[in-house]
Amino acid sequence: MFQPKNKIIIITAPSGAGKTSITHFLLKKFPQLAFSISAATRKRRENETEGKDYYFMAEEEFNQKIQHNEFVEWEMVYEGKKYGTLKSELERIWNNQQVPVLDIDVKGAIHVQQQFPDTTLSIFVDPPSVDELKRRLSSRGTETEESLQQRINKASYEISFKHHFTAIILNDNLERACQQAQQVVQQFLES
Length: 191
Hints:
Elements: E1 8-12, H1 19-29, E2 33-35, E3 38-40, E4 54-56, H2 59-67, E5 71-78, E6 81-86, H3 87-95, E7 99-103, H4 106-115, E8 120-126, H5 130-140, H6 145-159, E9 167-170, H7 174-190
Parallel strand pairs: 1-7, 1-8, 2-7, 3-4, 8-9
Antiparallel strand pairs: 3-6, 5-6
Helix pairs in contact: 1-7, 5-6
């Protein structure tokens, strides 16, 4: 029988590797999964919805939640921009008899795995190359030259941690990467 309590699925990758596309695919395939909404201190983008894409918070509110130990993990992902997974968000999903899917950065993913070592599936989405990553990020049209370089430098660092995760999926073909992720998740849910 399916037991969601304390199971967690983490999808992690450098920015632009395709983790969000794979996350959306998995959420459509498996009704027992639910998206874990992260908290963020950055400004909301035009296409984002409060309480659906992120819980957007002022720095002060975020820091209060840190002091009150309300996060499973949090990181300053980019200078002045903090992201985190609220304990209350995981509880909300578990209470709904579902498994939370965390679409989070590499450091945060390692922290969650350390706290839930026996009940976490972690998938690292590996880009085909740093050059391809740069091309993907550039084509979004959301990056300045400086922020693009920041993301590329960070990506090279993050890729060095890929062997810390349960599964590594190369995203050189999104359809194939989604199929591989589906197989890994299916096995985890049945275990």
